[in-house]
Design brief:
single chain; 249 residues; alpha+beta; Type Iii Antifreeze Protein Isoform Hplc 12; SH3 type barrels; 3 domains; 5-stranded mixed β-barrel; 2 helices; 14 strands; 22% helix
Length: 249
């Protein structure tokens, strides 16, 4: 009886050890194969992270607050591990707010190339109306306030230069918080049609000053038609201030 139990124990230990060795063998083979597999091909998320960093760095000229979203790489793509640094280029002239396509390529012994699309959002502190401004009003510095704005889809239609906004005339009513654009602002009219003005005529060192009437409205630097009050002659001149048109004779 004692011998039978001993034999059973030996048999059990032998079977257990064989199964343990098989398990260890399969575990090691699977681990090595898995490691080789991850080392053999590029990680898609790592590529996306690198492309995103590249975009943020290269798009800094667009503004101080730039975010980028890169679309996923097709999971079916198995890209060989690149032994050289990845080459990342935009397919357009330069990165822009909105949709961009990037060329990502590997220039190693096993070269490959893919195209990734991304979406860039840009936020800037730009001037908006601090209050309601009605048509015909002249914008002053007290009418402006800075507001952080998503300019991704504005396509540079807004005015970002303060000096290009102040002293402009409101072409159509601007609501509080609205952007200043070339569509709602225009040059301030210094002279209106029918205004009595001074006509200064000059030529080769002599100057003649005469009274006249504006036959059209005009802003600084704009050419308008005026009529000499004494001679009734109609000429064109350049608006220089609120009461003066300069004419070359």
């Amino acid at each position: 009886m004692h011998i039978e139990i001993l034999t059973f124990i030996k048999l059990f230990v032998t079977i257990f050890m064989k199964k343990l060795l098989i398990f260890l063998y399969l575990f090691l083979v699977h681990s090595i194969t898995g490691l080789a597999s991850t080392q053999k091909y590029e990680d898609h998320q790592a590529i996306k992270k690198q492309v995103t960093s590249h975009i943020i760095q290269q798009a800094s000229f667009l503004g101080n607050d730039v975010t980028a979203r890169v679309n996923n790489i097709d999971q079916r793509l198995r890209l060989k591990k690149c032994t050289a640094p990845l080459q990342i280029r935009t397919t357009g002239n330069e990165l822009k707010p909105g949709r961009n396509t990037l060329n990502v390529s590997c220039l190693s012994d096993t070269p490959w190339r893919i195209f990734l699309t991304s979406h860039i959002e840009v936020f800037k502190d730009i001037y908006v109306a601090k209050k309601l401004l009605r048509k015909g009003a002249v914008v002053t510095s007290s009418d402006l306030t800075l507001k952080k704005t998503n300019i991704t889809s504005l396509h540079k239609r807004y005015l970002s230069n303060k000096t290009g906004i102040i002293n402009q005339s409101v072409k159509r009513t601007i609501a509080k918080g609205d952007l200043f654009t070339t569509n709602n602002l225009t040059d301030q009219l210094l002279i209106k049609k029918g205004d009595l003005i001074n006509i200064i005529a000059s030529n080769r060192g002599f100057v003649i000053n005469m009274k006249g009437t504006a036959l059209a409205s005009g802003s600084e630097g704009q050419r308008i038609t005026v009529k000499n009050s004494r001679t009734k002659r109609i000429v064109q001149g350049t608006v220089t201030d609120k009461a003066t048109v300069r004419v070359q004779i």
